[in-house]
Amino acid sequence: MLKIYPIAKLQTVSELLNSTRHQILLTGSWASPFPNTPGVYIFRRGESIIYVSETGSLPGRMKDIIDTRNHTLRRSVGTKLYSDRIDFTKSSSKQRFCDAIEKQLNQYIVSNLTLSFLPVSLGRKELEERLFSVHTPEYNSKGLRITI
After folding, report:
1. The CATH number of domain 24-140 is 3.10.310.30
2. Distance (Å) of CA 138 to CA 5, 7, 42
3. What is the pLDDT of residues 91-109, one digit of tens each?
4. How would you classify the pairing of strands 39-45 and 113-119?
């Protein structure tokens, strides 16, 4: 079914796509400068948008990227990159990867991914859905999306 997006939403999409790309540092304090607001965020690898999501707290969610148990993107990237290793064990919300994979995953994220975000109080789910439908990010779970 065709979704209709108001012009304001399309402008907001453009604002997010053109917003600052932040390098990911994966330190305990790296999320502190983010505004303590709800918002939509995207992870990129080069020019490709690989993950889109929304959150009620930007700094809280950015802290989550440090721990594999707390962020789907970390689990998905780690599985894709390292599942062929002999020391690979699938991670979950209760279990991290082994220390060697966690270390390599941290290095990969810091070296290859950037983050952009846009504070959005109202309509952040709609903005996330719009970005997902246009860009089809590699690491988003496609089965969770519902078209109305």
Report:
1. no
2. 23, 26, 12
3. 999 999 999 999 999 999 9
4. antiparallel
Per-residue pLDDT reduced to its tens digit, 41-81:
999 999 999 999 999 999 999 999 999 999 999 999 999 99
72/93 Cα distance (integer angstroms): 8
The pTM (predicted TM-score) of the whole model is 0.86
Domain boundaries of the chain, sorted by first residue: 24-140
- Would you call 6 helix, strand, or coil by DSSP? coil
Give the list of residues 6+ apart from residue 140 with CB closer than 8 angstroms, or none.
51, 52, 53, 132
Residue with token string 């290095």: 107
Q: How many CB atoms neighbour CB 66 within 10 A?
A: 18
